[in-house]
Amino acid sequence: MHIAFSRFSVFYSPLIATFAGGFLQDEGFTVSHAPVPAGKTAVSMVLSGEATVAQAAVSAGFSALEKGAAVDARHFAQVNEADGFFVVGREPDKDFTWARLAGCRVLVDHGGQPKAMFQYACHRMGLDYGAIDAMDAGDPAEMVAAFRVGEGDFIHLQGPAPQQLQEDGVGHVLACCGVVSKLSVFSSLIARPDWLATDEAKAFMRAYREARTLVSDAPEDDVASIIAPYFPDFTPSAIAVAINAYQALGCWTPHVEITKAAYEGALDVFQHAGLISTRHAYEKVVVAPPV
Questions:
Q1: What's the domain count of the chain?
Q2: N or C: which end of the chain has fewer CB within 10 A?
Q3: Which CATH number does the domain housing residue 165 bear?
Q4: Mean pLDDT of the chain
């Protein structure tokens, strides 16, 4: 089994733990994983057979439907049911409010969904996104490098990068976008419909449920010890702090299904960003997980 990741961070620990914790191996799988390479997408890798399962987002289904195409790779389980990005500033601020970002230079992740989610979080907190000097410094690694050399007043990142910046004394975690945004399916798992009908898919789901329970319920240090080898650029302590933050956020819910309520939340985000022309039907994008 090959698993493709659109992004690879602690936020996706439920999927990472399926192989890091040995759950897929216990089901008889030999597992490989890698980020989606440049020039390809999670959807294209699944449809071509290069990946069995991929981490993606329901917004990939929105993109296909906006072009009049079918959603051939189906979204069958959720990874996160909230936005897992953090706002990091250069100084501690126990009285931080989102209005503090107005007029400041903010290194914003300009990926389609992260940016849309950040804009929605600003909207929810009564802040005009246009009032921010939103800087595009490239991919997350490039953003962190720019912040470390003094670019920007604030930065918008997934864990564990914010927690590592704080541990290194470079920044301070001030807010989590998922706390201020309402329920929304942020990331999901996709696969081909024919594979989802197989016993192999059922075995995958058994492993995924066990891994999800582990990362949600186990002490953060225990989870960090399992996934830390996959994050060599981060300290185990920063990884553990990020895991604790995600456990507290509740983004790794006990259920694996993509609920209609969470799907509607994603539609709200993309409608607010002007990235969809209509509220696409749940049934055109989502299927139930293999049982």
A1: 2
A2: C
A3: 3.40.190.10
A4: 93
What are the tens digits of pLDDT across the range 129-184?
A: 999 999 999 999 999 999 999 999 999 999 999 999 999 999 999 999 988 877 77
Domain that holds residue 130: 85-180
Identity of the residue numbered 283: E
Please tell me whether residues 126 and 175 are part of one structural domain.
Answer: yes
Q: Considering 119, 152, 180, which residue would you say is the last residue of a domain?
A: 180
pLDDT confidence of residue 181: 77
